[in-house]
Task: structure prediction
Amino acid sequence: MTQTLTGRRVLVVEDESLVAMLLETILEDMGCIPIGPAGTVEEGLAMVADPAPLDGALLDVNVAGRQVFPIAEALTARGVPFVFSTGYGESGLPDAWRGHATVQKPFTESAIRAALMKAMGVENV
Amino acid sequence: MTSIETDLAAALNASPNAYFIVGPELKFVWANQAYFAVTQRTAADLIGTPVFEAFDAGPGLDAPESTRRLRASFEKVFATGVRNDIPVLHYAIPVPGADGVLAYEDRYWSVIHTPLIRDGVVEHVLQYAIDITELENLRRSAADVTTSAVHAIDAIVGGALLSGARSVQADNARLETERQGLMDLFMQAPGFVTVLNGPDHVIQIHNSAYAQLIGHRDISGKPIREALPEIQGQGYFEFLDSVYETGEPYEGRASRVQLQRTPDGPLEARFLDFIYQPIRDANGAVAGIFVQGHDVTGTVRSAERQKLMIDELNHRVKNTLATIQSIAVQTARSHGDPATFAESFQARLMALSHTHNLLTRSHWEGADLDAILQHETEAHGSHRVTLNGPPVALEPAAALSLGMIFHELATNAAKYGALSAPEGRVMVDWAVANQTRPVLTLTWREIGGPPVAPPERRGFGSRLIERNVRHDLAGAVILDYANDGFSAEFSVPLEKERSS
Result:
């Protein structure tokens, strides 16, 4: 079942390096290739604008004091599926993004895997 | 003059009752013979003289009040064209004594002021003053005896009328005092109050708190739509219209209103608790609206702040848990043995926790670099670690990062570096360069330890240091595994550049 995510390039937007390191470790364990991490909204936007292929993204909702939604919009425009990660709980997402795939901090590997697969439309085989 | 008018003027002049006439400046224009007689003054003396210059009520304690009442009565008649009476007026007048020198004589008067109107304008006021000094003195001396005696004497000298007038006057004075007291309360009430009149909600009266709320504009007598044009479209005019039409009160809670509180200033949001209460006339029809309320902006804002703080706290707690989760996962990967994992994990947790303590002490405003370094190195002996640099205040995020970084450096030095040998030492030197955009430069240098070789595999510690400096601190670090001692050179901007 891990094959389904193997080789997928997944952008990580997360301002805390320790959390970013954990996400990278988890992604590598799933066979993905972590891209980034981006520690600010600007860095993230630059990475989304890069023509290199992207298969998915994990977006921390609050990045260095700003909200990540401009990156979410850029990804949507590019057709790249993504998952929010947030410590804010249910109230962390504004109405426009409510219901979008989200993982709560702290997260487990299986939660991230399930959310990414759902977002990317990959069936668990 | 017709003959009748001439006769009337002559009759007035000859009347035994004292009369005089004043103009709007309250100067004597005319007085009759009886008036000159009762005041013992002459026409040359008085005509053209201001009344209050000729007669100032003397040195008595109540003289200023008597003067004020007399003047107020004149002014009221000039202003309204309606007759005004002062039933009892204590008013001393100067009269020439036997030696010709003026001396004040205590007098009581009953005064009637009649407007003399021409073409709808009060041109003059006629005063008819009766000297009631003797009656008053009689009453006053009797008052010391018994109440019934007073009544008896009042009855004899027609005092019932006087005392009736006196009590009306006392009532009026009491009502005036009460009215003024209520007015003061209204004006000084902590809540805002305004009274609106008629279907256009004309501002009849408003208090200081209301003036404060709307920014001290001149709104008296204006319809509300004209007085506060900026709240058009915010729903309040419609609520007022509805209260006026239906007679149903309207209540608002923490209701947001945008007010222009300074001329040409921006719209400013205030939050109000208020009520629109209909005022009804004698027939029960709505005649106006009583507006009363409180500015609760402070309360609303602090509730908002509290929600933000709770969200922020939740965010921080969850992020801290994610950080600890990461430390646990990464530590586990480099420790096969549960015992050494536990030891290493706990040490990292304690380093994080201690920086939290430092930050809590400063209410999360920041922490001092020296304090963080001291804590992370003191376990290895303060004489073996030299800290040298100026005080540097670190923001909370930077403090947390550097706390973890120094923990990794100190742990590494104790395990493999200078602090693993008895003679080894660590020297930490730092400085702040570029005062406009300050940058912290810090060197961690180990000497006297065993020979150093670069690690075969980059462990969690060194990855944490490199990632943290670059990613979280937007700085740079060089880790140098020189043979004679490990060193690390940091360059960290103290004010994180953040484009908004």
User: Anything to note?
Assistant: Helices of chain A lie at 17-29, 41-49, 69-78, 109-120. The domain at 2-120 of chain A is CATH 3.40.50.2300 (Rossmann fold). Chain A touches chain B at residues 15-22, 25, 37, 39-40, 42, 62, 64-66, 86-89, 91-92, 104-107 (CB under 8 Å).
